Amino acid sequence: MKCQISDEKMPGEDHIKKLEKIISRLPDDNQFQTKSEIFKAIADPTRLKILYLLEEGELCVCEVIMALDKPQSTISHHLNVLKNVKLIKWRKEGVWIHYKLSDPKIVDIIGHFTQII
Prior knowledge:
Blueprint: H1 13-25, H2 29-42, H3 45-54, E1 59-60, H4 61-68, H5 72-84, E2 88-93, E3 96-101, H6 106-115
Antiparallel strand pairs: 1-3, 2-3
């Protein structure tokens, strides 16, 4: 459906008020930016695999490397992207870094989202 706005057919005052009400409830630009960054982070198959691996519990970075059979530098990059958008947490134990999901429901949410598409 096309929406053409001309001088003859401007939206009515009721329609404008309805739109203003909807707009007032929208998140601010910073929140949209954050949400966008999260979607960018999960848009990569390797990062999705990492999230699914971490669904089973905390893993050492070396375990992620072994499970995905990718170079350490590649895995580190993907883990950093996921850390930056706060989808995963980490802790250091000696020389090893362990990762886990920030929220155990993350994978369920992704799964639910992909079922409705």
